Structures are given as structure tokens and as C-alpha cells.
Amino acid sequence: MSDNTTPPRPTALCPRCAHETIEHITGSPAPGVWEVLQCARCLYMWRTSEPARRTRRDAYPAEFMLTPEDIGAAPEVPAVPPLRGPEAGTATR
Questions:
Q1: CA 54, CA 61: separation in Å to the nearest integer?
Q2: 66 or 87, which is more confident
Q3: How many C-beta atoms surround the C-beta of residue 13 within 10 A?
Q4: Is 14 exposed, middle or buried, given 0-12, 13-18 or 19+ CB atoms closer than 10 A?
Q5: What ranges does the record give for the region Disordered, renumbered to this chain (predicted)?
């Protein structure tokens, strides 16, 4: 029986790449409802209250799973460009 005061147990493996190092990022405002976790290798993030297809390795869609080789061969993620100045977002008449 759950009293909703104990947070859900973190997953032992990353659902996407099966890495064992999972970091706790944050928890729900109401204690014990959910946690946000992140894989230290592939950076996949998930909330523990999401469905099994997002939170459990054995239910994660095979077409989205990654291997260490996939991660090593991935192109670099592009940097976010700097914000435009206030004049760039102003409409003209």
C-alpha cells in the first residue's frame, strides 16, 4: 500500500541507452508524486509518472533506442543562437 509520501523509485537503466548512471534532477511540488530523471550518457530526461514506453527500458520503442556507438557518432548539437535585440521583434507600420 502506498501512502504517496515516498517518491517513485528511480529506474535502474536509462530507457533509451541502458546506461546505469541516472541523475535525479527535480521532484514534484507535492512530495512523492513524481521525479525528473536524466541519463548521464545520452542526456535523455523523463518524469517517473510517464507511461512505461517512456520510463522503462523493456517497454521503450526499439527505433528510438541508442547504443554507445550511436551516441559517439552523433553530430554535435548546434548551439542556440543569441537572442535578437528588441528592435528585431518590433513590428513596423
A1: 8
A2: 66
A3: 16
A4: buried
A5: 73-93
Side chain identity at residue 93, one-letter code: R
The span from the CA of 25 to the CA of 3, in Å, is 23
CA distance 5 to 7: 6
pTM of the shown model = 0.70
CA distance 49 to 15: 14
- Asked whether the CA dihedral 42, 46, 48, 52 is positive or negative, the reply is negative
Instruction: Name which residue leads in pLDDT, 49 or 5.
Output: 49
CA distance readout (Å), 78 to 56, 73, 74? 29, 15, 12
State what percent of residues in the chain have pLDDT above 90: 65
pLDDT at site 8? 47
Q: Between the CA of residue 10 and those of 2, 13, 26, 76, 77, what are the distances in Å?
A: 16, 9, 12, 29, 27
